[in-house]
Structure formats: structure tokens, C-alpha cells
Amino acid sequence: MGNRRGLLLASLAGTAALAIGASGTALASKQAGATCTYTMTNTAGTTSGTMTGSVKCPKPARKGTAKFAYTLSRTKKTVTYSGTFHDHFPHRGRLAGTFTMTGSHSTASPLAGTFKITKGTRKLAKAHGSGTINCTTTDHGATYTCTTVLTKGKL
């Protein structure tokens, strides 16, 4: 069960505010402060993993799907998830970016970190910025609920 936690994280992808049953990201407002919610399932390995699921953001992004791919690094006290995210919003566009989250080795501890939007398409083509991401789990890392908040930038 500790491995799942250790291999969490994310699709922080496009992360602006996310709540994921595994992790996530998406920037969905024309101004800083946009918040998205992700619900994702975590598939963890020993040193890497993916989280996939749904994302819900304010306009112009709205509802979509999310995928976070990550690598895992550990110290004696912490676990760090670093990777990329890809959010797809049907008929609106896509967001992509990077994220990093850190937590303790406890499978119930929260994860906290940052994300950066690196690319947007279609209606989200001018998206850019960065923000914070916070994730929690109630099932030892099998799923996560994450919230991302865009602190700089816009869509």
C-alpha cells in the first residue's frame, strides 16, 4: 500500500485547481485564482506511475479528462512526485504542463506542491501560468482528490 502512495501523482496537468482521486491540474479561468477539481485513480509502480480520471474547472475549460505521468523519489522522511499532466476538454482544447508534489511516507498523508502550464490548444491556446496543488487520499493512495489553484497567469 505504501508503494501506491509513493507512486502517486498530478495530471496536475494544466493544473490550476484540482481535486483528484489520485492527483491533477488544469487552469480554467482567464485570471489567477481559478480552481479545478480532479478525481483520479492511481496506478503506481516502484519508481513511476500514472493517474487518470476526470477534471472539472470553471469556464472556458469546464469538464474533461486528465492524465498525470510521474516519477517517484524518496528520502528518509519524504516522497516526491514529479511529472507531466495532460488535460482534455472536449470542444474546448487541451492543457499540458509539469508538476511536483511532496508528502511524508505515510500512506494517509496529504501531498502538496506546484504546477506549471506549458501549453494550451484551441480555446485554451493562450493559457499559461503556475499555481499550487494539494491532494488527499482516504484509501492508501489508490485514489486521490486534489485541488489546484492558479496563482499566476491566465487562460
Write the layout of secondary structure elements.
Elements: H1 2-6, E1 35-44, E2 48-56, E3 63-74, E4 78-89, E5 93-104, E6 111-120, E7 128-136, E8 143-154
Antiparallel strand pairs: 1-2, 1-8, 2-3, 3-4, 4-5, 5-6, 6-7, 7-8
Describe this structure in words.
With 155 residues, this protein is mainly β. It is 3% helix and 55% strand. It has one helix and eight strands; from the N terminus they run αββββββββ. The chain has one helix at 2-6; strands spanning 35-44, 48-56, 63-74, 78-89, 93-104, 111-120, 128-136, 143-154. It has an eight-stranded antiparallel β-barrel with strand order 1-2-3-4-5-6-7-8. A hairpin with a 7-residue loop joins strand 6 and strand 7 (128-136). It is globular, with a radius of gyration of 14 Å. It starts with a helix and ends with a strand. Mean pLDDT is 79; it is low at 1-29.
